[in-house]
Amino acid sequence: MLSLDEFLKKSKDKAKIYKDFRVRADRDVTDRLTVCIPDIHLLERGLNDDFFDNKPENEERFITLLDFLLELKELEKNELEIIQLGDMFDLWQARGNTNLIEESYTDVLGLLDKLGTIYVVGNHDIDLLQWYEDRGETFGRKWRYFSSLAGKPRVIYEHGFQADFANNQANWSGAIGKKITEVVGLMEYLNPDIDVILGSAWESVSRLFTIYNGGLTPVKNPDGFHTHEYLNFYIGLMEKYNRGDTDDHHDPTDLNLAVVGHTHSPRLVKKPKDEETYYLMDCGCWVNGGHEIGVISGKDIAVCQWG
Predict the structure, then answer these.
(1) What pTM, to 2 d.p., does this model score?
(2) Which of 88, 160, 219, 237 could be cross-linked to 262 through a Cys-Cys bond (beta carbons 3.0 to 4.6 Å apart)?
(3) CATH code for the domain in which residue 108 is found
(4) Residue 173 placed within a domain
């Protein structure tokens, strides 16, 4: 298994630790190098395509990452796992289905598939998963994914909308975020930067929802890591899985790391509870110039920026 430091060295300084977001867990969490790619939000290269953002260098930088991972995959084989954490497509703002998006990003999507990427569904592309399920067909996206060590799941990968009151597509409240996004998408045809302009306003709306939803309440971490509003939610979820008290995974697990995207704000937090230390890694995004990835190897967990 390639270590985190070896991964950084092989990247020839293209991958660097973001801020101080690196931690060494008290025990191994993976038995292979795992690279997590957060929200991409591919559209049709229009004014509201936040991945392209009218800057060709954004796509070029992402392709250099995929090219590097492909070279690494040829060497590491099954010792390298690539996970895309959802919102690969932005179907909330798309002009139709994925056909126009796929035509716009044949290189990106082709490389992701060639890497054998594991796809987790996000709130912006969950409609695609539901479309296939309604027709009794299979599709490559998963609601969540687990990686195991010593025969037990150790890491859970979700998009992160599950912890977000206004965007949880499993509940009625998820319609709020979707409708806001659809309105913003229309406004972006008039002003491409409207989503950036409204960023602070949306944060105010999110803070209002925290009053009604304990899962969004910020947690202060005694170890000095940046806070994350989803930490308690994911500790509770991991505890539930570890007890075997779930519908989709009846055997007890050994989870202590949750990996998400969704917020577009990279962070790495940890919190001790009941003689266990739990970790939450938010891998950032690839929209509006973001270029973060999550990297896990053995005990090492880190958020990196590429390029």
Answers:
(1) 0.83
(2) 160
(3) 3.60.21
(4) no
